[in-house]
From TrEMBL:
<dbReference type="GO" id="GO:0000049">
    <property type="term" value="F:tRNA binding"/>
</dbReference>
<dbReference type="GO" id="GO:0006432">
    <property type="term" value="P:phenylalanyl-tRNA aminoacylation"/>
</dbReference>
<dbReference type="Pfam" id="PF01409">
    <property type="entry name" value="tRNA-synt_2d"/>
</dbReference>
<dbReference type="InterPro" id="IPR006195">
    <property type="entry name" value="aa-tRNA-synth_II"/>
</dbReference>
<feature type="domain" description="Aminoacyl-transfer RNA synthetases class-II family profile">
    <location>
        <begin position="240"/>
        <end position="497"/>
    </location>
</feature>
<keyword id="KW-0547">Nucleotide-binding</keyword>
<dbReference type="GO" id="GO:0046872">
    <property type="term" value="F:metal ion binding"/>
</dbReference>
<keyword id="KW-0648">Protein biosynthesis</keyword>
<dbReference type="GO" id="GO:0004826">
    <property type="term" value="F:phenylalanine-tRNA ligase activity"/>
</dbReference>
<dbReference type="InterPro" id="IPR002319">
    <property type="entry name" value="Phenylalanyl-tRNA_Synthase"/>
</dbReference>
<keyword id="KW-0479">Metal-binding</keyword>
<dbReference type="GO" id="GO:0009328">
    <property type="term" value="C:phenylalanine-tRNA ligase complex"/>
</dbReference>
<dbReference type="InterPro" id="IPR004529">
    <property type="entry name" value="Phe-tRNA-synth_IIc_asu"/>
</dbReference>
<dbReference type="InterPro" id="IPR040725">
    <property type="entry name" value="PheRS_DBD3"/>
</dbReference>
<dbReference type="Pfam" id="PF18552">
    <property type="entry name" value="PheRS_DBD1"/>
</dbReference>
<dbReference type="Pfam" id="PF18553">
    <property type="entry name" value="PheRS_DBD3"/>
</dbReference>
<dbReference type="InterPro" id="IPR040724">
    <property type="entry name" value="PheRS_DBD1"/>
</dbReference>
């Protein structure tokens, strides 16, 4: 609309001398007109030249002077002909001011009016008595302000006074004057953004006006970087990282640093009393890496009752379980005066497995341990019942098992109502003294610990039968676990002590 008005006007006239005046005449918003001008200018339909105008703006105070009179005149007029006590003046002034002014404004008018009327010598103060010193005053300030508001010229001295009284301030107004441009046409063809098939088929491409590329345009914000479904906490009963994390925190556990995927064989196996001939240390099960850490402790050298080889312990690998992190943490703990600890971690581990529907070469492990004096298998069972009931698995069974580093060891089973069978959900045990004593932990200190994968219970819970739907490069980041297989969900309902989930 604005574009047509400009082009139409230029058809009959040489120029538009002032976009401000033009916008008023045509009833077009000036900002809208400016946008139209910029576009027409860019395509050479018009030539626009900047106009800058200085404009004086009235402050709020000045606007009230225009409406009611200046403060000094209001004050002068409030002083009775016979004079009054100074103490009473403020009240008199306020009582004479328009009722629609609030008390703060009234006080301000009184203060300003008093100062200005005294300065003008309109009033005088003797022995606490205020009296008029002139018979009649004219509201020059109000008149000046009205002139300014109407855009009339006002002398530099007056402008200066009003500016100093902060009644007016300068505003720069920007507009344009316009002439026809080299590409002027009275009616503008809509510029095409792209060359399309029609342009070619109808031979229009020769005449089409193309929009220029705007290389400075910001473009659409990219949508990306969402949390992995396995990491998200959702409502009402997601079995995922953040929720497990919350359960550990509620149970008073601290998180262990798990940011080292590369580990030495020493911390992953040797420090855990796992012999160097153990089948898990075969490259068929573990990913070994080149180079070594040399981070092993002399403490362990030769202490295993077999031909222990330092080179074997030095070998780097991708950690096969987060118990490697637990070992480091226990060793660090043993270096200071003993304090009981509860530690947890949830992070990746790597195993050289044949990948199938239920196995991946990398997955997540949840690990928890408590290190304290006088712990027993009873404590371990109690903690496991507490922990698993919080993720909705309250029917548990324990089966004796074997781990090189725990004695006794227990596999943990949970009854799955949907599948009508017991399913293995984790592994646990009490760390062996052969592991703890060489680290320097006191003799009466025990460590109870357990580990489980993050993926397995999540798969059971949501009826996902292919682990690759949950982890790995094929996972849809929009995967909404709460929509999968509702029948299995009712089995494990999150029950938290705070009722938060
Ligand atoms: N590290 C064991 C695993 O990888 C789990 C475990 C942790 C067992 C702590 C006992 C104690 O399966």
């Amino acid at each position: 609309m604005a574009q047509e008005a400009v082009l139409g006007h230029l058809k009959r006239n040489q120029e538009i001398s002032d976009s401000g005046v033009f916008s008023q005449e045509k009833g077009i918003d000036h900002e809208e007109l400016v946008n139209a001008i910029k576009s027409l200018n860019a395509f050479g339909l018009v030539i626009a030249s900047d106009i800058k105008r200085e404009k004086w703006l009235l402050s709020e105070e000045a606007q009230s002077y225009v409406k009611y009179g200046s403060a000094e005149v209001l004050l002068f007029e409030a002083v009775p002909a016979e004079g009054t006590a100074k103490a009473k003046l403020q009240e008199i002034v306020k009582s004479k001011l328009p009722v629609d002014l609030d008390d703060k404004t009234k006080s301000l008018i009184y203060d300003k009016g008093w100062a200005q009327a005294m300065k003008n010598k309109w009033i005088g103060l003797e022995d606490s008595q205020v009296s008029r010193k002139v018979e009649h005053v004219e509201d020059k300030v109000k008149d000046l302000l009205i002139q300014i508001q109407n855009g009339e010229a006002v002398g530099a001295k007056d402008i200066d006074t009003l500016k100093r009284r902060k009644l007016i301030s300068l505003q720069i107004w920007k507009g344009y004057s316009l002439k026809k441009g080299p590409n002027y046409t009275a009616t503008r063809k809509k510029a095409a953004t792209d060359l399309v098939r029609d342009h070619l088929q109808r031979d229009e491409w020769k005449d089409v006006e193309f929009k220029e590329y705007n290389f400075l345009a910001k473009g659409q914000p990219t949508e990306g970087g969402c949390l992995h479904p396995l990491y998200k906490a959702g409502l009402p009963n997601f079995f995922v990282k953040q929720q497990i994390q919350m359960i550990f925190l509620q149970m008073g556990f601290e998180e262990m640093p798990t940011n080292n995927y590369v580990e030495s064989s020493f911390w992953n196996f040797d420090a855990l009393f796992q012999p160097q001939q153990h089948p898990a240390r075969d490259s068929h099960d573990t990913f070994f890496l080149k180079g070594d850490w040399n981070l092993i402790l002399d403490l362990y050298l030769g202490g295993y009752g077999y031909d222990w080889k330092r080179e074997e312990a030095n070998k780097n690998l991708l950690r096969t379980h987060t118990t490697a992190v637990s070992t480091r943490m226990l060793y660090a703990l043993a270096q200071g005066p003993f304090t009981p600890k509860r530690y947890y971690s949830i992070d990746r581990v790597f195993r050289n497995e044949a990948v199938d529907r239920t196995h991946l070469a990398e997955f997540h492990q949840i690990e928890g341990l408590i290190c304290d004096r006088g712990l027993s298998l009873g404590h371990l069972r109690g903690v496991l019942e507490d922990f698993f009931s919080r993720i909705g698995m309250s029917k548990l069974k324990f089966k004796p098992a074997y781990n090189p580093y725990t004695e006794p060891s227990m596999e943990i089973f949970s009854y799955h109502e949907g599948l009508k069978k017991w399913v293995e959900i984790g592994n646990s045990g009490m760390f062996r003294p052969e592991m703890l004593r060489p680290m320097g932990l006191p003799e009466d200190v025990q460590v109870i610990a357990w580990g489980l994968s993050l993926e397995r219970p999540t798969m059971i819970l949501y009826g996902i039968d292919n682990i690759r739907d949950l982890f790995g490069h094929k996972v849809r980041s929009s995967l909404n676990l709460s929509q999968t297989h509702a029948h299995t969900k009712s089995v494990f309902v999150f029950i938290s002590p705070s009722g938060d989930f």
